[in-house]
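Quick one:
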Amino acid sequence: MPPKAKIEAFNHLSYNEVHKTCITYSILDYPKLAIMHDRRIRITKRFPVGQFASATLQIFPMGINAAYNNIVSMVLTLQSELLENLDADFNLYILNRTGSLMINPRYEYFEKKPHRACWTMSHVVDSSFLLNSSNDMLFDNKLQLNLEVRINNNFHPSSGQLSSRPLRQSLRSPDFGSITFCIRDTRFYARRKVLVKGSPFFADLFKKFGKKIKVFEMDHVSEEDFEKLLIDCYLNYGKGKK
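Output:
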């Protein structure tokens, strides 16, 4: 019998990438915008967050509606056509003239909605505070914003792909690979080098147990999640070879 290793727990999110994006943005001629006092004015900034998502930041210098008159309002929208179970948070800062992070009024957390876009709104600070020269909040009449966006995603490139069905069948064939994963009565078989290149989870696993271990008993593991991870490894490995 080949040597075995028992894995007590498996966090199916452990292999997911965490994408972090930080941008600095200026609202030009903020005093002029304040004098205009027009809530229809909005400034839009679009930027990528990681490889599979994008974000849109809308800034309403005079407030998004009458309830927030003269309050700087911001709406952040995240969009993705590929990601599953997307969750994200963001930190918003306004810099003062010394360059330090002046305020961080909101910390938001939101889950991805079924329509594949999620959004949140932050009402930042009163315009009169920003325009008061004694507060040193403007740089050459520009309001300096720093926005940090961080997303965690459970992305399965195999999701919804019919072409992965033959691969699912192959993963249950002992001839498909020399590494065996036992999840209760189910057996999965795979090749070591594909798994190492396909997921940090397996790279760490094989580094920990070495090359002699050929069989892994996976306790407290979702068969569905683990199968998706294996399929992802093969799809990602195939992309890397092209």
